[in-house]
Amino acid sequence: MSAIARQLVLAVLAAAATRAAAEGGTISGKVEVTPAKYLEETVVYLKGPKGAARPPQTRAMDQKGMAFVPHVLVVSVGDTVEFLNHDNVVHNVYSPDNEGYNLGSFKTEEKARYTFAQEGAYTQLCSMHPEMLAYVFASPTPFAAAVDKKGHYTLANVPPGTYQVGVWNSKLKAADKSVTVTAGQTTTLNLTVKR
């Protein structure tokens, strides 16, 4: 394929992606969590929207101040997380969840990578510092978000249609809810998570 033909194909694909994003809708709302101390360990995600494929991405989770930052990182299945170390001590990263992994030890300014192949939550731990705890949530689709400190979330550029919305919380459970997305519109969906 010639360079001009490749550029033309890329331009057509970029235009289609922009048009699809413009034709999508938004879901936003607030999640009420009881007890409230678990609020910041909550993720809202869509289950199985058609046309949700996108190229794998690389995200970062740091180890800084003897903590994982961010505390909850949302990725899609197939994405890679680069684990950084900005502390002045050696750290380790491992998870006992799903297929489980142990990335070994790495020093200040070193990094390790892991690609998440299965849907679900992965607890992030450091074998050298047992007080360190975080979560990587591997969503089945790119339409997922951790809630903010007040419980708000937004899922943008969702293709029009009716979907099931799932909620993951580190300690609590919530029933799935149905939502219908309309092109160019924002749908409000408030959710409750409790014991």
Beta-strand segment tally: 17
Low-confidence segments, given as residue ranges, are 8-21
- Please state the structural category: mainly beta
Oligomer: single chain
Order of helices and strands: HEEEEEEEEEEEEEEEEE
- Number of structural domains: 2
Helicity level: 10-25%
Number of helices: 1
What distance separates the N and C termini? 58 Å
Q: What report would you give on this structure?
A:
The chain is mainly beta. The protein has one helix spanning 3-23, and strands at residues 25-34, 42-47, 58-63, 68-69, 72-76, 80-84, 91-95, 101-106, 111-115, 120-125, 133-139, 144-146, 152-158, 161-169, 177-181, 186-188, 191-194. Strands 1, 13, 16 and 17 form a four-stranded mixed sheet that branches. A four-stranded antiparallel sheet has the order 12-2-14-15, with no helix packed on it. A four-stranded mixed sheet has the order 4-3-6-9, with no helix packed on it. The longest helix is centred in the first third of the chain and has 21 residues, at 3-23. It is globular, with a radius of gyration of 19 Å.
Protein traits:
195 residues; mainly beta; Immunoglobulin-like; 2 domains; four-stranded antiparallel β-sheet; 1 helix; 17 strands; globular
